[in-house]
Amino acid sequence: MITVCMVGAGILSITSISVIDKLFFGKMAELGESCYFNTKQCVAAWLVLSGMINVMILFLIAG
Fold first, then answer.
1. Under a CB-based contact definition with an 8 Å cutoff, are residues 46 and 16 in contact?
2. pLDDT in tens, the chain (63 residues)
3. pTM of the model
4. Which residues span the domain enclosing 13?
5. Rounded Cα distance, 5 and 54, in Å
């Protein structure tokens, strides 16, 4: 069960890193600065959301 949680956390981390890489190094940051939410806010929201999903999955598996 712990292994499944660790694998899930790793998958979420890899997904987060690839999204951040695509945003900042894929020439999307310049476009993102002109929107209502800038790129840093979008990345912070993505990281908070993935962390909440990770904790919810941990509680569901452990409980």
1. yes
2. 678 777 877 887 788 778 777 766 666 656 656 667 677 777 788 788 888 887 888 788 777
3. 0.52
4. 2-62
5. 8
